[in-house]
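Reviewer 2 asked us to include a model.

Predict the structure of this chain.
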Amino acid sequence: MFVSIRKVVKSLLYPLYERRLVRSLDFSKTPHHVGVILDGNRRWAKSNPTAHDPHGHKAGAGKIIEFLGWCEDAQVKVVTLWLLSTDNFKRSQEEIDALLKIIGETVDELAATGRWNIKAVGAMDLLPSWLQEKLNALKPIRNDGVEVNVAISYGGRREIVDAVKNYMGQEVNAGRSLADAATKLTADDISKFLYTAGQPDPELLIRTSGEQRLGGFLLWQSASSEYYFCEAYWPDFRRVDFLRALRSYSVRQRRFGS
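Predicted model (structure tokens):
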């Protein structure tokens, strides 16, 4: 009885708290690029035994469109969502197949809204052909709104390796030797071949579920990022949690390079 009363009180107070948070934020100082590690789906499923979602992936996918709406309201320009890591392929084939199916459906739902440009970033060669074809078919559909990167089969180390390989390949095709290419290689050269080339680096990275590590997410791009770790599992992530992350970012004094 006491627990149910507390839930009712919270449900009444949170809208007031959200409005207070919104009033306290200066959206002109919103991070242009927000990266999110959507963590905690499986733990959410275990903590909700009545949920007909053994791994929590469907519940997590269902949160994404809602979250992107919050980003639009906050004037975020680019969002990168880590949906599947290269390490996830170590899970059982049954879970991987189910997760890939949900990811494919999620990409279809995002594209069907017509609200955002969807771009797949990651090692596409590790994915089944049907999903590769779906992701390769994604095209820009508008010149405004949030740019959404769906990081699928993504690993930060793999991204850097791919960038260096592609740079070296370009140099060889231009008639230069590998020795000369290595000599002239710069950080800017690598940045031009990252999956997110042409986009600003993320100013804010959010990880849900209480884990306080990046796990290789946007490894190169996050050199100067601010981090925000949230205790909520991704399916339970609320607008108020997002606003708290933005508030935390807004009061930090960013010290680049230190």
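Residues 195 and 233 are 27 Å apart (CA to CA). Strands lie at 33-37, 78-85, 117-121, 147-154, 204-207, 226-229. We have added this to the supplementary material.
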